[in-house]
What does this fold into?
Amino acid sequence: MTEAAVLPQRIGKYRLDGLLGKGAMGVVYRALDPLIERTVALKTVRRDLGNEEQATEIIERFRKEAQAAGRLMHPNIVAVHEYGEDDEIAYIAMEYVDGTPLSSLLGERPAPLPQALDWFSDLLAALDYSHAHGVVHRDIKPANLLVTRDGRIKISDFGIARIESSTMTQTGAMLGTPSYMSPEQFRGEAIDGRSDLFSAAIVLYQLLTGQRPFSGSAATVMQQVLNHTPLQPSRLNAALPPGLDEVVMRGLAKEPGRRHATARAFQQALNAVSRDGPGSPPPGQEPDNDATIMATPAALQALTSQPGWADRSARPITGTGTGTGTGTGTMTGTGSGSGTGTGSANHPAWLQAILPSLEMLLTRQIGPMARLLLRKIAATSPDFDTLGRQLLEHIPSPSAKVLFQQQMAALGAESLPATATSQLDTSGTNSTLPPTAPLAPLSAPPLTPEFATAVTPILAAAIGPIAAIVVKRALRQAVSRDDLIAMLATHIDAAPARHRFLDNAARVEPQRPPDN
It folds into this structure.
């Protein structure tokens, strides 16, 4: 009998549409809340497992998990919508994330350093928030970290239903995954956020070196975690910048008091290494060697297919170039391998001038299909305006269309002669799109590294030390000062703080680089 044949039709109010995961303790379903037509992940635990005492303990722990996670609303944490009990099943309705577990993307080689630090910054941002709200995750590991379609990390608890029975120790007093547990977890001591930071440091070590610092059987791992100091990351990856060893090894300190005190302190230490490392380019001038990061799972395939990174057999998405990838579902995507790019000697000069920047803008909206789509449409577009209108048809949402219109118009104004474009219409006339703000005049101050440096502390006042990483990401895609400010503002959840940031950033005076 197939899984589909035994899939229940409904749990509580939720209609079950598919199976996401299954284990000894429960099942995770893809489900629909019919009242608001929202897709959710429904994590379930059976109430009839073991004897009555064990079942009561399991359900109580499950309920406390829902209560703790239900207090957290953060872009890097999978949201919990509801807890319920139905007949012999307890369930948690959670945000459905279309993503890939980080564990599926890791191989035996280091991840590219910019990507590793970006992902880890997302993890630290989530831990900083959860710890501030009194929630300690206790099971941070790659399998519980989802890489979303736009390349962000979300902490997820989907794996608990699969590993609950195997992660309890002989006494049942400890929970966790041995290779990622802290010393205090193994000792059965009281834990706080620094235990999560130890587990996070193990994840960072694995990203930087391609190896876990502690491995083997559960007993072997326990002895290593309690008594063994692993090799410094640079011994396994000589390309790492100086200073990174100290930051990682402090995260792996045996005693909590010797570790980074908070996730924010951990991030600040990483920022200092990134800022002071030799050869670090100024803001806005980083090499574009990870331009497909903020894209679809197919783009993640392109990233992980770089020579010397993930084991190909471990990746859920296969193939390079244009093809069909398989993972959770089927998709068609474009890798960024050894193609010839969008440029062509057959294109007119005005088009050749903007193609690289335009591909970057389009990739941000639709992912790695951008290159193929742009090549196809550019071949038949007689002018810039026609090209823009045809590309707009492929942008998925109205708000994204508006932003792309503005970016296209700014790109045309900055890069093209007057004869090449009459400027994209952003007024909304004869269009289904909403009106947009007027574009900056040609005399508007340019986007410079100096402006990025000036706006970073303003953003940091709203979101903390991860601001430096956020600004670096945005600089790879922004085409103007206003564009950068708007992109940065999307990372501020609270409306008052967002408005303050917009006001303060708009007041930053343009700074010209000193004359030589």
The chain has a mean pLDDT of 74. The CA atoms of residues 178 and 219 lie 9 Å apart.
